[in-house]
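Supplementary Data S3. Sequence and structure tokens for construct A.
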Amino acid sequence: MSSLANQLVRAEKEEIARAIRTLLARPFLTADDEPAAFAVIRKRREPLTRWFDYFCGWRLVVEPREGYARLVKVGSRPTATRPARRRAGGPPFDRRRYTLLCLCAAELLAAPVTTIGMLAGRVARAAAVETGVPPFDPVGADERAAFVDVLKLLERHGAITATDGTTDAYLGDEDAKVLYRVDTTRVIRLLAAPVPPSRLPGASAAPLAALTVEARYGGDEPTQTQRALWARHSVIRRLLDEPVVYLDELTPAQAAYAASLTGRRMIRRAAEEAGFVLEERAEGLLLVDTEATATDTRFPDDGAPAKVAALLLLDLLVTAGPLPAGRLDEEAAELLRRFPQWARAYQSDGGAPRLAADALAVLAMFGLCRRTGDRVAALPAGARYRVDRGPADTADTADTEDA
């Protein structure tokens, strides 16, 4: 093979790997937001579709004319670590906002054009007839704020586009005039559940788990081939979705697959083709993206007080833990006392326990600590963040690097 041909093959592999990581970070990607990334995904959609189907069992939909790509991810287990957010990096959606999101999505399918007032009216009428759904009254400022957060999320995904007026105007004025163009196809693509809610028997009483049943794995009586397929997909899904996968958190079938020669080969191949560095430890596995393309949040990171506090508390947990949660509250209080101009949002009564709780939530999200009852313990991956305090700690530090 000529040098030019080698370069072309290498370039194709690099494009596919980067596109895989991009889609993992942004499963609903539009040409308007990321034209360069979308151009690569459109160009390489066939190998990308095959990769996601083979290694993860996830469906990739690329619509070149409509200008979007949708990676339909089905989680290997329920998690609250990736909520919808009210603003970029803002507070997560609460139950009310998720409810309004479902109602809005359903009502937007009725017409290709609508106004904010008409949509609010339809949502109010739908809420009034749905059992167990609180009434929606746009007269209240809090209700309008929740409604606007939902509409802004739909705008970010291109499901609706404001062609006249701005959505934020509705915050201060119930009579604000905003005209929307609705992309009903994108509204439908928002739903990633393998089983549509409307097809569930007794949908109002059906458990959420019923939405994520995948027929390809054979249900209650799978064949050996289906069991192997589920093991491969479920393990690699977790590796792609979670910062670290501990072997003691896997089912016996998953752990056996990860330890088998076939499983190791598949995991290593998936990591290589997606451009990840695979770390294999005695306690578990993790994928490292050296370019941070697939990373939607970072640690360590000084962008938020909770993440700064998390790093400091983690060092304490690694060196002196497990510890009672009250001890971490005391450490957070000491931080606030030493730095009175820092973390202003926590510089009030009850601020220290809130800071400690938010810091522990960060550590738990990154797979670095685990809380059992009133005690908190660092997990093995936390050792890599241990502070090297000098020659006296050299031996201990070397041990943690091999952990």
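Construct B, processed identically:
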Amino acid sequence: MRTMTVEDILKARISTRAFLDTPVSEDEVRDILDIARWAPSGGNLQPWRVDVVMGPARDRLVEIVGKAITEDPSADESEIDIYPPKLEDPWRTRRYQLGEEMYEFLGIARENKMGRLARFAKNYEFFDAPVGLFFSLNRRFDKGQWAHLGMLMQSIALVAEERGLATCMQESWTARAKTVSAFLRLPENQQLYCGMALGYADKTAAVNKLRSSRAPVEEFATFLTD
């Protein structure tokens, strides 16, 4: 059987938004992290922190956040802007198109606001994935170290894909950053960035057939040869 290449894995990986309840062992998660820790890190700072929730801990967090959402659906505990305010094109259009494509796959019409809100709330259940990972940085760090964290997250996602697992990077958790940070007992000097769902993809789910588009190389790269 042909071994998957990095190219295969990059093109196969998607943001999985429906998972099976098939369990993932702690040993499997530890093994993925053990490989991903070799991600690039400028100055070898390795500034990242990863908190893993699974089993009863995962269920307690889902319950706590679910209750908080019920009590105050509009609460926003974000400390960082995931997207810049007044997003312009082409970025605004890309984001809008992805959202519309996703809800189309789910069969949720634009005017069905309650349906869309209910679907968005699935973020806070890790889309039923059995494992959640949370990523944070010490507040003293700046943009360079945020890039290091991103490389770690990418590495985790690619290793998981190679092993038949699926992931979804979840910036939505920033809206509940204080609640999650308290649950994880993060120290005050630690800033939560986002979460990641990890598990086995439900390949029968329509939403998992969505593959977001990418701009061609000519649109984002410049080659200077003279």
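The chain has one domain: 6-79+124-211. The mean pLDDT is 94.
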